[in-house]
Amino acid sequence: MTTEVRTTVEDGVALLTVSNPARRNAMNLELSEKLVAALDAAVADPAVGAVVITGEPPAFCAGGDLSELQGADPARLKTVYAGFLAVAQCPLPTVAAVNGAAVGAGLNLALACDLRLAGPGAKFDARFMQLGLHPGGGYTWMVDRALGAQGAKALTLFCDVLDAVEAERVGLVWRRYDDDAALLAGAKELAGRAAAAPRSLIETTKATMRVTSGAISHQEATEIEVRAQAASVHSEEFRERVTALQARISKR
């Protein structure tokens, strides 16, 4: 079976489907490399304003290829991680449409996205402790930011596994859907809202949010924002959208 990342673009949203059906979309070196290439192509496409990532049914991503991890040195591990690290570093908004098991590296892939949505078959399983494997790829940082200290330790140290209902309850996913068709439709609809904004604005705002989410004060955040906001005020996109809004208001 072919290992690939399929890309479709519609209404400004690039849908990337990771596919390694023989291994339930396990993230091996080949798939990781193809995910990086697909993301690079999406970012390079001026028609794309947001990215949705999902898995070939019935899984999202069933972890990493353990045979490739055995005996790996730090350089090789970074190559294995390259796919979801590219997602984490993507300048465009990213949505994980988790349609099945997200295990180990698959959980990393979901965590790397800005927003996580869950279908009925979603399952979130760190599984590092059971394998005798230390977490990698920034997992400990991402899971703590997603769930806080207690939730991060529940998933990681205590090996708790979350289904879609529990993941929504604890805030690991933003929204849960009753079927996979609704999941993909919901992911595209949310991503489409981001894609409808001026691309330069959405990229700058996401970059600003990365900086201001750190341990800084409200005043420092304001100083960071003010420069980017001043630039956007003078943009042609802002002028056109305000003019259109004023025209709609005047007709009421």
From TrEMBL:
Superkingdom as given in the UniProt entry: Bacteria
UniProt name for this protein: Enoyl-CoA hydratase
One protein family per Pfam: ECH_1
UniProt GO MF annotations: catalytic activity
Alphabetical list of InterPro entries matching this protein: ClpP/crotonase-like_dom_sf, Enoyl-CoA_hyd/isom_CS, Enoyl-CoA_hydra/iso
Protein family according to the UniProt entry: Belongs to the enoyl-CoA hydratase/isomerase family.
PANTHER family: EG:BACN32G11.4 PROTEIN, ENOYL-COA HYDRATASE
Database matches in NCBIfam families: PRK05870.1
Organism: Pseudonocardia halophobica
